[in-house]
Amino acid sequence: MTELLSLYTEKQMNLGEDAKPISEKLNTDVYLIGVFDGLGGAGGRRFMLPNKQAPIKGSWLASRIIRETTLQYFKENCADSFKFYNNISSVLKNLENKLLLSLKESLGKLELNNPPSRLKGSLAIKSLPTTMAACYIADKKGVFIWAGDSRGYILDTGGLHQYTKDDLENEYDALDNITKTSDMSNYVSEAGFILKYHLFPVTYPSIILTATDGCFDWYVTPMHFEHILLLTMQNSLSFKEWKIRLLSAIAEEYKDDSATMSLFCVGWDNFTTMKKYFHPRFKVIIKDYIELIDDKKKENKGPLITSLWEKYKKAYDKTVQNIPSNLGNTPKHIAVPYTDSAEQVPTEHQTTEKSKIDSTDSSNNIGNPHNKPTILTEKPILLKEI
Asked: How far apart are CA 24 and CA 327, in angstroms?
């Protein structure tokens, strides 16, 4: 059984800077998932569009442009997994060039009625900045593709594993990144960027997911993010109910304008068998981590959290070595050694350092009282519509 799930939430209707997630079957046993988070700080520039009454931030536009371009590119060029994996470096270089071209062409059209900023150098803002994290899955192999701090994970009986390394100026690990601030060293924009990738074997059964920072950045520790994934699963009776519960849990925690997640579940007969499969891990994450950290009787939990994180991180961190951000606009990619064995691919461990159900899901019946997270209803922006 294979199940695709898409979740999206936003604070204000149609103003979330995350684009609708990708959760697509491209061909027989060929899948693509992905998330895209427009960067409001870097993309503060606003544009008037013919079909909008108020100016739209460039970050809002960027995530949607890159989402549509990415999906179109994979549909047209990557349905054949044999060709994809045998030409992965050139395929991703072409994707990088296609994304850059789409942003430049879109910006050119936008600037016909929106003069560019006169700010230069460090004061200049990017017009169309966004993160992206996608995963192409076929032939029992997968490849995470990313730029920025949106992430790719795998969840199995060994726990949650982060496979993408945040593109940050400071070398923070996933725990430090929750409480410390760092500028991004790389993200998708019209000024140029670098796509990173991590090739890995898909073990059955497992869950592959991509998520924007609105999903994971507001929990006390990375262990709590895994806990909420498993807790909502264990309290559900179906994939539909799990989506609703996970959506609600993330919406209660996140403080960004939006949060997005896309999941690929493979290797189980049905939801019940998947739930049973993860139950032992659910008990471990509660007993060994969550109960200890959330114990209200304990004061000064800093040393305890640090100790537990060092233990947890040994299995959690599957990131790859980062690429220096000073390589300019020349497309550079990173590949991890891959084997067809079912063993985990060995990687160099170098720690570094919003949830809506897909609009086609009839289970999405959550309202929007008091400015609560809402359903995405706007039509995705296509290049030809700008």
From this structure: 33
Nearest to 160 by CA among 316, 274, 277: 316
Distance CA 274, CA 123 (A): 50
Reply yes or no on whether the pLDDT at 228 is more than 70.
yes
Selected from 1.10.150.240, 3.30.1330.10, 3.60.40.10, 3.30.70.100, the CATH number assigned to the domain covering 2-356 reads: 3.60.40.10
Strand partners, 47: 56
- What is the C-alpha separation between 202 and 70, in angstroms, rounded? 22
**What is the tens place of the pLDDT at every residue in 233-266?**
999 999 999 999 999 999 887 766 789 999 999 9
Does the N-terminal peptide bond of residue 331 adopt cis geometry, omega within 30 degrees of 0?
A: no
Q: Is it the case that residue 7 has pLDDT exceeding 60?
A: yes
Compute the radius of gyration of the chain from its Cα atoms.
Answer: 20
- Cα distances from 206 to residues 91, 92, 325, 328, 349, in angstroms, run 26, 25, 33, 37, 21
Q: What is the pTM of this model?
A: 0.82
pLDDT in tens, 28-38: 999 999 999 99
How many CA atoms within 13 Å lie on the side-chain side of 174? 33
Q: How many CB atoms lie within 10 A of CB 297?
A: 4
Distance (Å, rounded) from C-alpha 228 to C-alpha 207?
Answer: 14
Question: In 34-57, which positions are buried (b, 16+ CB within 10 angstroms) versus exposed (e)?
Answer: bbbbbbeebbebebebeeeeeebb
What is residue 30's DSSP assignment? E
Dist. CA 365–CA 357, nearest whole Å: 10
- Asked if residues 227 and 286 have their Cβ atoms less than 8 Å apart, the reply is yes
Token representation of residue 118: 């006169």
CA-CA distance, 263 to 151, in Å (whole number)? 12
